Amino acid sequence: MQTSCARCLEPVVAPETCATYCPAALGRPVLITDILFNLIMFALQLLTWAVILVAIVQTLIAFNVLDTRNRFVWSVADFLTRVTDPLLRPIRRRMPLFGGIDFSPLVLLVLLQMVARPLIVYFYTGIKTGMWPSLF
User: Fold this and answer.
1) Long-range contacts of range 100-106, CB-CB < 8 Å, 24 or more positions apart?
2) Domain that includes residue 20, residue range
3) Domain tally, the chain
4) pLDDT per residue rounded down to tens, the chain (136 residues)
5) Are 15 and 45 in a shared domain?
6) Backbone angles phi, psi at 101, to 5 degrees
7) Alpha-carbon radius of gyration of the chain
8) Which DSSP string corresponds to 49-85?
9) pTM confidence score
């Protein structure tokens, strides 16, 4: 039987399971920093998926698997290119050419995963707890 949590009103199978996920059940309010952190991390996830998709779509277009004369294919490719190109362009300028293979999406993904996410978690932890651990 499915019930709802008494504090957050989310549907749960057993009320004791809500205590592990519900901030209200844990006795702490949801702060604006939690919301901003989750929004920033979600935006980074969307950007990661956009970079992966643009690499796949550009490869399929290069091998003539996708036809850019199709309006839907063109609009999806154009949207993904407009979203990711401001981040990929500086990387493409600095990277040498490797026989027509574009490694800039891979470099951007590594930068997002190895630099951006840990820095965001570092700043979130510092703001949340007031303690700033050493970066190195």
Assistant:
1) 102/55, 102/58, 105/51, 105/52, 105/54, 105/55, 106/55
2) 1-30
3) 2
4) 556 655 555 565 555 555 555 555 555 666 788 888 889 999 999 999 999 999 999 999 999 999 999 999 999 999 999 999 999 999 999 998 888 888 999 999 999 999 998 888 888 888 877 777 666 5
5) no
6) -95, 130
7) 21
8) HHHHHHHHHHHHHHTTSS-TTSHHHHHHHHHHHHHHH
9) 0.73
